[in-house]
Design brief:
homodimer, alpha+beta, Arc Repressor Mutant, subunit A, 3 strands, DNA-binding
DNA sequence: ATAAAGTAGTTTACTTTATAAACTTATTTA
DNA sequence: TAAATAAGTTTATAAAGTAAACTACTTTAT
């Protein structure tokens, strides 16, 4: 009846991150922080979780002298996001005969 | 950019309950338990939370000799559900200019 | 030159939330 | 009358979320 939700994506911040990366392909730590309004600490933790699941890749470099953390969504991440959206839909369209 | 999710509805089981009650108008504890596959304990706790928020109403009666807990969604619950769905949509349709 | 403020994060400690196991109360069946 | 079943609730524990404190370095002001 209901398709299972992805626990990793059933978090407002992590869903925001994934949603951003679906749209932007590539985004810096600061950009994501600004767009989501998350605290740096929380963002750091959630990015690591998504990275550990291979939903995103994180690369560290420098922009001038400043550290720059760049995030991208992976093919697995895109797949997981789409599956999660499908699952969400199963909660939204409910009819009695299903 | 992203509309805020309702913390109460951002839980798989509570969303399932609300989704069921949107479709069925009225459902017993056992029915919800069967449909969601939740344990009784977890279901009891989550129903109480939804009830405390006035998203559902719970009425206790007897069917024959057996206790019967019947749940209904309230107008506030319907409103919250619809708002939450709208918020979810904001995470699903992302375009660069928003 | 150096102190103060800002940038870009990470780690840690704490709080909240979710969940299952254990319990309660009563009923049916063997 | 003992054992199993039904319908829940309470409570203890595990997992998750979050902010505060910290690290490390850079830029700006004095």
């Amino acid at each position: 009846m209901f398709k299972p939700l992805d626990p990793l994506l059933n978090s407002e911040l992590r869903l925001s991150i994934m949603s951003l990366l679906i749209g932007f392909e590539e985004a810096s730590f600061s950009f994501i922080k600004d767009k989501t309004g998350a605290t740096a600490g929380n963002l750091s933790v959630q990015l690591q979780k998504l990275s550990e699941a291979n939903y995103i890749s994180i690369s560290k470099s420098f922009k001038g002298n400043m550290p720059l953390t760049t995030c991208r969504i992976t093919p697995l991440g895109i797949q997981a996001f789409e599956k999660h959206v499908e699952a969400l839909m199963s909660f939204i369209n409910v009819s009695k005969d299903k």
